[in-house]
């Protein structure tokens, strides 16, 4: 029992870290000396690192909001997990935790889909960066974690 | 001990500003406006001294891409002097109140050529040491949504909805707890007697 609990907790923490890094790192699109989105558009030249704000378009702001919300909801579900560990009756399920975790995974999914669809193509050597890949990796992990919380029951 | 410390700090604070007074000027950072509209560029200052009669305000304009700035407005000796030869001839108006440390100007009928940096410099003798403050004017055909507005509103809306759901949940729980008495009494057949029944039980 303790082992399962520890494993679930470690998974949750890993997901939180992945979401955080994906949101913060400015590497959703990289290509040569340029890396763009989600927050800045940066160019590395011989003189240094030149950054300007990412475009103001509606879809980028929506992706920003969805990623931030997913990090927040993952954090809330961690807090609720800690709470419910001590306050749940024997045999109860972690519904609150599961709901927030599944919502977090939905937000990541929506954010990643919007970014994939709306990204302007036609730019030479513009490939998806590691932050984008982390977002897609954390979506199924988050969903699985939420489902585990639905199935998990509290004992003793 | 504490009173000595308090007295010492008050005396020190009283002495120090005499030697390092500086006037601090506030303007905006960036202003967005539509072509053809009017815009008010605000300028105010903070100074340890009272507002003197010789207070001066001075606005200068540097177009985007140019290196030199030209002076477009000056207030001195109690009278404003607006631009009558330059790019803002007949388009500039003084709408500030020097007595209240406000040196704002109004630009009318903006055009794309008005993009640039406006610098306000204010002096409040004898408090004259200070750094001028600049505001950038951007003229658009259609004002774009500023960065972060949509982001903030989506996050705020979702968190607000969450809060609302939590509040409604606890409200429902509270109401159902009060109606529990009504429900059990109605089992006996009389729904209208709900409140009386609960009072009897209490």
From TrEMBL, chain A:
Source superkingdom: Eukaryota
Keyword Transmembrane helix attributed: yes
Keywords linked to the UniProt accession: Membrane, Transmembrane, Transmembrane helix
Any single Gene Ontology cellular-component annotation: plasma membrane
Keyword Ligase among UniProt keywords: no
Topology in the lipid bilayer: Multi-pass membrane protein
InterPro entries named among the record's database cross-references: PMP-22/EMP/MP20-like, PMP22/EMP/MP20/Claudin, PMP22_EMP_MP20
Main location: membrane
Family matches, as Pfam families: PMP22_Claudin (PF00822)
Record localization: Membrane
Membrane-spanning parts: 62-82, 94-118, 130-152
Family designation: Belongs to the PMP-22/EMP/MP20 family.
Protein name, UniProt field: Peripheral myelin protein 22a
Annotated source species: Oncorhynchus kisutch
From TrEMBL, chain B:
Transmembrane spans: 145-171
InterPro entries per UniProt: Ig-like_dom, Ig-like_dom_sf, Ig-like_fold, Ig_sub, Ig_V-set, Myelin_P0-rel
Domain Ig-like: 17-138
PROSITE patterns, alphabetized: IG_LIKE
GO cellular component: plasma membrane
Taxonomy, superkingdom: Eukaryota
Keywords, comma-separated and alphabetical: Disulfide bond, Glycoprotein, Immunoglobulin domain, Membrane, Signal, Transmembrane, Transmembrane helix
Record has Mitochondrion as a keyword: no
Topological type in the membrane: Single-pass type I membrane protein
GO biological process, one term: myelination
Keyword ATP-binding listed: no
Compartmental location: Membrane
UniProt-listed SUPFAM superfamilies: Immunoglobulin
UniProt similarity note: Belongs to the myelin P0 protein family.
PANTHER family assigned to the protein according to its UniProt record, in alphabetical order: MYELIN P0 RELATED, MYELIN PROTEIN P0
Name of the protein in question: Myelin protein zero
Gene symbol of the encoding locus: MPZ
């Amino acid at each position: 029992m303790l082992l399962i609990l520890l494993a679930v907790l470690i998974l949750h923490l890993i997901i939180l870290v992945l979401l955080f890094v994906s949101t913060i790192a400015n590497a959703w699109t990289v290509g040569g000396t340029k890396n763009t989105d989600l927050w800045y558009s940066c160019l590395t030249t011989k003189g240094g690192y030149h950054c300007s704000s990412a475009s103001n378009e509606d879809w980028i702001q929506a992706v920003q909001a969805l990623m931030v919300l997913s990090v927040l909801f993952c954090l809330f579900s961690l807090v609720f997990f800690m709470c419910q560990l001590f306050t749940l009756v024997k045999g109860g399920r972690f519904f609150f935790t599961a709901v927030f975790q599944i919502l977090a995974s939905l937000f990541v999914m929506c954010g990643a889909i919007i970014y994939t669809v709306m990204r302007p193509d036609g730019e030479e050597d513009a490939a998806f960066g590691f932050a984008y890949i982390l977002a897609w990796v954390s979506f199924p992990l988050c969903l699985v974690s939420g489902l585990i919380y639905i199935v998990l029951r509290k004992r003793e | 001990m504490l009173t000595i410390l308090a007295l010492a700090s008050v005396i020190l604070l009283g002495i120090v500003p005499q030697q390092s007074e500086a006037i601090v000027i506030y303007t905006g950072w960036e202003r967005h406006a539509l072509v053809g509209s009017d815009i008010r560029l605000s300028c105010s200052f903070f100074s340890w001294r009272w507002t003197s009669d010789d207070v001066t305000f001075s606005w200068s304009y540097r177009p985007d891409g140019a290196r030199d700035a030209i002076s477009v407005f000056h207030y001195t000796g109690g009278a404003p002097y607006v631009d009558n030869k330059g790019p803002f001839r007949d388009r500039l108006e003084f709408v500030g109140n020097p007595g209240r440390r406000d040196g704002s100007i109004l630009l009318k009928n903006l055009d794309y050529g008005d993009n640039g940096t406006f610098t306000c410099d204010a002096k409040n003798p004898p408090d004259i040491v200070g750094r001028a403050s600049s505001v950038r004017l951007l003229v658009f055909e259609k004002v774009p949504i500023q960065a972060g507005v949509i982001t903030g509103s989506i996050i705020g809306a979702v968190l607000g909805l969450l809060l609302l759901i939590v509040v409604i949940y606890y409200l429902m729980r509270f109401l159902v707890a009060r109606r529990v008495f009504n429900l059990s009494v109605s089992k006996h057949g009389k729904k209208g007697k709900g409140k009386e029944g609960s009072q009897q039980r209490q």
